[in-house]
């Protein structure tokens, strides 16, 4: 199952110019997992935040979101480098959704209450690779900081 999804996500000539709903969400979830693992500490707070993001994005029940995250953890471990990974998402996901993805990345980056330079750097890199401009990324970052009560840190 996961091999099939990986081949659909990273095919040189995809069957469709857009990712199907579930494939897109697993790709997004995998990107969130990659970010959460960037500081070599992938804890409960980050896992729970990813579950919340996934549930909110598509109206999933908590158990469904956790299952999707678990699948994403396996996909992320097999996925290619971040540049190729984000290029696939950029080419096959609409801009508005990519802006929402960047906002979700900032949420996950700060989910554990820490501001980690590796995670912040990865979000900035991914935002640019997804075609989200610095201003929109910075606004999403500030919202995440405010929502989590970290704006003063």
Descriptive keywords:
153 residues; mainly alpha; TerB-like; DjlA_N; Co-chaperone DjlA N-terminal domain-containing protein
Describe this entry's structure for a reader.
- This is Co-chaperone DjlA N-terminal domain-containing protein.
- InterPro entries: DjlA_N, TerB-like.
- Residues 26-142 form the Co-chaperone DjlA N-terminal domain.
- The protein is mainly alpha-helical and 153 residues long.
- The protein has one domain: TerB-like (Orthogonal Bundle), CATH 1.10.3680.
- The chain is 71% helix and 0% strand.
- The chain has 8 helices and no strands.
- Helix 2 runs antiparallel to helix 3 (44-58) and helix 6 (95-109) packs antiparallel against helix 7 (117-129).
- It is globular and about 45 Å long.
- The mean pLDDT is 86.
Compute the number of helices.
8
Please outline the major beta sheet: none
- Give the domain tally: 1
Helix content: over 70%
The succession of helices and strands, N to C, reads HHHHHHHH
InterPro entries: DjlA_N, TerB-like
Organism: Paracoccus denitrificans (strain Pd 1222)
Protein name: Co-chaperone DjlA N-terminal domain-containing protein
Domain Co-chaperone DjlA N-terminal: 26-142
């Amino acid at each position: 199952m996961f091999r099939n999804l990986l081949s659909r996500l990273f095919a040189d000539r995809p069957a469709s110019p857009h990712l199907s709903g579930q494939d897109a969400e697993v790709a997004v979830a995998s990107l969130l997992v990659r970010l959460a693992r960037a500081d070599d500490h992938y804890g409960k707070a980050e896992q729970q935040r990813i579950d919340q993001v996934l549930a909110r994005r598509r109206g999933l029940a908590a158990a469904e979101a956790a299952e999707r995250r678990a699948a994403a953890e396996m996909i992320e471990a097999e996925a290619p480098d971040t540049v190729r990974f984000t290029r696939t998402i950029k080419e096959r996901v609409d801009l508005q959704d990519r802006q929402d993805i960047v906002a979700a990345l900032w949420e996950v980056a700060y989910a554990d209450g820490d501001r980690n330079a590796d995670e912040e750097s990865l979000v900035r890199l991914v935002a640019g690779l997804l075609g989200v401009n610095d201003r929109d990324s910075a606004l999403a970052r500030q919202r995440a900081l405010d929502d989590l009560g970290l704006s003063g840190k």
